[in-house]
Design brief:
Elements lengths: L1 H15 L1 H22 L9 H4 L7 H9 L5 E8 L4 E7 L3 E8 L3 E7 L3 H9 L8 H7 L5 E9 L2 E9 L5 H11 L4 E9 L3 E12 L5 E12 L3
Helix pairs in contact: 2-7
């Protein structure tokens, strides 16, 4: 019952936040234009580093594409710790997928061979749990909550490191966060991305404060570790 209440609450909250989110996008477009003017010398002064480095287009679809159409060998992992936990692990190459999926209901072994389309589809389809955090990422990407911290070598990749903290959102963004996460709710974490916004490592904590006074805590982790270096 708790899970159903949470899902309904999130759905309602997220729907009512759409208009606010569109306003944020409009403000973001205006801010981008001002930033470009300042960088070209046509603005009123230098841009602060924190403002210039804010926002990242974190793309979970890119991770899914890496699993479906791998071009190199890597180990993939994803986990969600909550009242409905999920765990995925897989060794992936352009030819083979060997992995597992686990939640409260079942544990499944996954094996896909690229030469067998049916087994390949079944294997990668069993590793799509990361899609469950799409709403959490949509809430903070390309916003003041996500700030560039620099470049770092991690999991065999040259990545850009970003910190995530909804506490530093603009007043308009804070209104969106409250409408989705509840008063006192937050998201906080770190993500390392490679080109196209693919996260090769991600750690995110999300806390939802429900209207009935309950608090739902979620902890996400995702990683792609390159092999054969």
């Amino acid at each position: 019952m708790k899970n159903c209440t949470l899902r309904n609450w999130i759905s309602t909250r997220f729907s009512t936040a759409i208009v606010t989110f569109l306003v944020i996008l409009a403000v973001g477009c205006t801010s981008t234009k001002k930033t470009k003017q300042t960088e070209s010398g046509t603005g009123n002064g230098p841009v602060k580093a924190s403002a210039a480095d804010a926002g990242s287009d974190i793309d979970l679809n890119c991770v899914m594409d890496h699993i479906q159409n791998p071009t190199e060998a890597f180990h993939y992992s994803y986990s969600k710790q909550s009242s409905n936990p999920v765990e995925e692990q897989a060794d992936i190459t352009p030819q083979i997928i060997d992995g597992m999926f686990k939640n409260n209901s079942a544990t499944r072994t996954l094996h896909g061979d690229r030469s067998d389309p049916e087994s390949w589809h079944t294997a990668w389809a069993g590793l799509m749990g990361i899609g469950g955090m799409s709403s959490a990422i949509a809430l903070v990407k390309n916003s003041s909550a996500t700030v560039k911290e620099g470049h770092e070598k991690i999991n065999g990749y040259d990545a850009v490191k970003y910190s995530i903290d909804t506490a530093r959102g603009t007043p308009i963004e804070q209104g969106l966060y409250r409408s989705v996460l509840g008063s006192g709710g937050f998201e906080k974490g770190t993500v390392w991305t490679i080109p196209h916004g693919c996260p090769v490592k991600l750690v995110l904590d999300s806390e939802l404060h429900l209207n009935n006074g309950n608090i739902e805590k979620l902890h996400y982790e995702e990683a792609m570790v390159r092999k054969g270096l």
